Amino acid sequence: MKSLEALVQDASNPEAFHSPAVRYTPQEQEVDRVMTICNGCRYCEGFCAVFPAMTRRLMFEPADIHYMANLCHNCGACLHSCQYAPPHEFAVNVPQAMAKVRAQTYTQYAWPPALGKLYSRNGLTLSIALAAALALFLILAVALKGNLWRTDLAGDFYNLFPHNLLVGMFAPVFLFAILALGLGVRKFWREITPATSGVSVNAPAATEATSSVLTLKYLDGGHGKGCNNEDDAYTLSRRRFHHLTFYGFLLCFAATSLATIYHYVFGWVAPYDLPSLPKVLGVLGGVSLTIGTAGLWHLNRTRHPAHGDQDQKPMDLGFIALLFLISVSGLALWLGRSTPALALLLCLHLGAVMALFATLPYGKFAHGIFRTAALLRHAVEKRQPNPVSPAAD
User: Fold this and answer.
1) What is the DSSP code (8-state) at residue 76?
2) For the chain, how many helices (H) and strands (E)?
3) DSSP string covering 171-214
4) What whole-number distance in Å separates Cα of residue 42 and Cα of residue 198?
5) Per-residue model confidence as pLDDT tens for the chain (393 residues)
6) Residue pair 183/111 in contact by the 8 Å Cβ criterion
7) Where are the domains of the chain?
């Protein structure tokens, strides 16, 4: 039997547990190490989906690690409850280890890979620079035609950018984003499906996963009181700001989709104003998105470094900044639609929207898609017999 000193040394060594036949990145080695320790403790088993998934495994291959990393919601509950957390010699920090692997998966599954690597290193700078460059290009195009500061537009932005021109500008970028996201998620899904029983998705599993996504179930800390602040206090602020951002985005998307139906099906041409349904949805979504992203920015900037991966902050903040710019510029465009500033506000809004579309597959938006896929596989896997239970073969 090993001595206590030998066990401590093994627990502190990321290479002590992983299979020598499989290549691991340093980030994957660390998750493998901490999950092996957690599997022997299991104090946090009821906290979130990660720990029930952990108990179904004795070894953690890269596919298992990628799957569990995207199950993790980074709520911090396990870190604040862990008896082996730093400064203990085992130095177990599950949220941070999982966050580093998540960032790795965003790059690893990105298509094309080069764009994923570029955005992961320079997310905030790239997002702001791209939005500014696109807005400046549009401003120059409008200015060259003498339309930058006009008082006779009466809110009709199609006088500046015809509808077909806008479709020609945005459709290719949006379709590319959908293609890139689809290819990345397909690769991720194909990797984690065999590692999560391989059983196909059924209706009960899909219903449970959908509920978990829409309610952000695993941001409740496992007890309903929310995530932990750095001072160990519980808070539901992350869950609430995520909800405001998520549903604000959906409302804005619904407004745009409905406006498309109005245009092509009924021939009702924009701009629309209150109390039209597209405008109601757009205003509600814009306000919700503004509040949600402002809150998430504050939480991201003030959260303790031990709660996540500091190298991932530029990616997180880049996505938050673009959503904030879109919501604020959209509301400003509505409020200033009858002023000479219409053209300038429209260019700023369109630049931010196009920058968001271009970066969707490589930023924080991708994590929502990957997490949904992981939750869906978890809902399938949990309904199968536990392969490492005492009654298992």
Assistant:
1) -
2) 14, 2
3) HHHHHHHHHHHHHHHHHHHHHHHHHTT-PPP-HHHHHHHHHHHH
4) 25
5) 445 455 455 555 555 554 566 789 999 999 999 999 999 898 988 889 999 999 999 899 999 999 999 999 988 889 988 999 999 999 999 999 999 999 888 888 888 877 777 666 677 888 899 999 999 999 998 888 887 887 777 667 778 888 888 889 999 999 999 999 999 999 999 999 999 999 999 999 999 999 999 999 998 887 888 888 777 788 899 999 999 999 999 999 999 999 999 989 998 888 888 899 999 999 999 999 999 999 999 999 888 888 888 888 888 898 999 999 999 999 999 998 888 888 899 999 999 999 999 888 887 888 889 999 999 999 999 999 988 865 554
6) yes
7) 113-193+219-365
What is the per-residue DSSP string for 128-175? Answer: HHHHHHHHHHHHHHHHHTT-TT-S--TT-GGGTS-HHHHHHHHHHHHH
Where in the chain does DSSP place strands (E)?
227-228, 234-235
Per-residue CA distances from 58 to 18, 36, 149, 214, 273 (Å): 11, 8, 67, 31, 59
Chain centroid, CA 267 distance in Å: 36
**Predicted TM-score of the model (pTM):** 0.88
Task: Produce one character per residue of 203-225: b if its CB has 16 or more CB atoms within 10 Å, e if not.
Answer: eebeebbeebbeebbbbbbbeee
Instruction: Kindly report the CATH class assigned to 113-193+219-365.
Output: mainly alpha
Handedness of CA 315, 316, 319, 320 (dihedral sign): negative
Q: CA-based Rg of the chain, rounded to a whole angstrom?
A: 24
Determine the Cα–Cα distance for residues 154 and 336; give it in Å rounded to an integer: 10
Answer yes or no: are the C-beta atoms of 135 and 350 closer than 8 Å: yes
Where is 286: in which H helix or E strand?
helix 277-302
